[in-house]
Amino acid sequence: QLQASGGGLVQVGGSLRLSCAASGLTFSSYAMGWFRQAPGKEREFVAAITRSGSRTYYADSVKGRFTISRDNAKNTVYLQMNSLKPEDTAAYYCAAENTWGSGSKNFYEYDYRGQGTLVTVSS
What we know:
mainly beta, four-stranded antiparallel sheet, 0% helix, 48% strand
C-alpha cells in the first residue's frame, strides 16, 4: 500500500514536500513515480526514481523546480516542490513498479498506486 501526504495550500513561489510511505512490499525492489491530476485534466507524469535512487526523471514542466528522492530504509519516497506555480495545483499520486525498474510515464504500468494528496497553489 502507498500513502501520500504533505499536500496543502501554499502561495505562489512557495515550497512543499510530499511524502509517500510504502507498506506491504519490498520497497527497494520498486521504482517509484509521482503523478498529478488537475481538475478537468488528465493525469500526468511528474517524476520517477529508480530502485536505488541513482537515476531520476522529470516532466519538462517541473524540471529544475521539483526533486524526487527516496529513503529505502524508511520505505518512503519524497517530492520536494519549489517555486510553485498556480498550474501545479492538482492531486498528487505516488506509484510503485518493479517491471522496468526505472519507472514509467504511464500511471497504469505501475503495480501499486496510492491515493492522492491535494496541492493548491494560490496567487
